[in-house]
Amino acid sequence: MNKKVLVVAAILFLAMVSCMMITVNIYFPEKDVKEAYKALEKELMTPEEGKPTEKPEGKPESSIKFEIVPSAYAQEQGLSDKIAEIVRKMPDVVHAYKEMGARIREVDKMRDDGAVGEGKDGMLAVRDEKLLTSDQKQIIAMQNADRRTVISGMARAIIRINRVPENEQNLKQVMPQAVEQFAAHRRDSAKKGWWVQSPDGNWTRK
Known about the structure:
Shape: globular
Strand content: 5-15%
Number of strands: 4
C-alpha cells in the first residue's frame, strides 16, 4: 500500500514539475504593439480611394541623418514593423480590418451621436440604446466580432516573435495585454465629443 502511495506521489510531483517547466514568461512590448495596431489600422481600414498616392522613390537619405537616430528608437520601430508584418500574413485578421473599414462611416455616426463609446475592453459599448436602430445594433455586433479577431491576431503575433508554442496557455497569458493596448489605441484615436471608458471603468466625453 505504501509503495502505491509513493508511486502516485512521484507521478503527481513529476506532473507539477512538468507544468512548471513549460510555463514561460512571454515578453510583451506594449509600445510596439500599440504602434503596430495604429499602422495596421491606417493601412488596412482606409478605403483604396482614400489612401494617399505613393511618392516615387528618390535619392536615399544621407548617412549622417541615419546615424543620429538613437539605436533604441530604431530597434523599437523595427519591432513594431515586424509585429505588423506577422499580422499582415493572417488572412482572417486582414479581412476583419477591411470589414471594419467598410463600416467606419456608420460607426463614426454612432460615436458622433453619443450612442456608442469606446469600452475599456476594446469593444464598442452602447451608451444610449434609444438612439440605435436594429441595423445599427447589428453593425455594432459585427464590428466587435472583427475587433476580437484583430486582438486575437495580435496575441498570436506576440507569441510568434517570442518563438514559444502557440497554445491556449500562452494565448491566455498575452491576451489581456493585447486587449489593453488595443483599447488604449482606441481611446487615443477617439475624436472630440466621443465617449471613452478609462481602465478603471469611468466614462468621459473627449
